[in-house]
Amino acid sequence: MTVIDEWTGRHAHALRTALRLTNEAFAERLGISPRTLTKWRERPDVVPSPYLQEALDTYLSQAPPDAQVRFSANLGLDQRRVPIDDTVLTQLNTALGDLARALARLQTEDPERSPSS
After folding, report:
1. Alpha carbon of 111 to those of 12, 63, 81, 100: distances in Å?
2. What is the pLDDT of residue 38?
3. Which residues are CB-neighbours of 95 under 8 A, at least 6 positions away?
4. 25 CB contacts (<8 Å, ≥6 apart)?
5. What is the pLDDT of residues 74-97, one digit of tens each?
6. How far apart are CA 74 and CA 116, in angstroms?
7. Would you say residue 101 has pLDDT above 80?
8. Burial of 68 (0-12, 13-18, 19+ CB in 10 A)
9. Angle 71-76-79 (CA atoms, 0-180°, nearest 5)?
10. What are the CA-CA distances from residue 109 to residues 97, 101, 105, 114, 116 (Å)?
């Protein structure tokens, strides 16, 4: 997970968009006005109060993994993807095997057949 030492308006905006919240919904969670969020977006170097820094830390740590990945990507910090669990990986491998067998069967049925026909 990305750790922010000092939150700025740029970081807060990246978190809001990663969480896919409106200005109003995010402002309500933080206990501030939507206008404050607009000011942070307009002045990305502004540093919120220590209280808001803690709140932003909390929302980032509680964000779902996909939102944390979007947050890092929004900031250009980390391009890692959400890991695929073993069940999905097994299903993908099975599907690839099925496709390879189907392709091989098609090719043996009509050896003159080209991929574009």
Report:
1. 59, 53, 40, 16
2. 93
3. none
4. none
5. 998 755 555 667 787 788 888 889
6. 40
7. yes
8. buried
9. 80
10. 18, 12, 6, 12, 16
C-alpha of 27 from chain center: 21
DSSP single-letter state for residue 63: S
**pTM of the predicted model, to two decimals?**
0.65
Asked whether the beta carbons of 48 and 104 are under 8 A apart, the reply is no
Q: What are phi and psi of 32, to 5 degrees?
A: -130, 175
- 73 burial (CB, 10 Å; 0-12 / 13-18 / 19+) is middle
Report yes or no: 16 and 71 within 8 Å, Cβ to Cβ. Answer: no
The helix/strand/coil state of 21 is coil
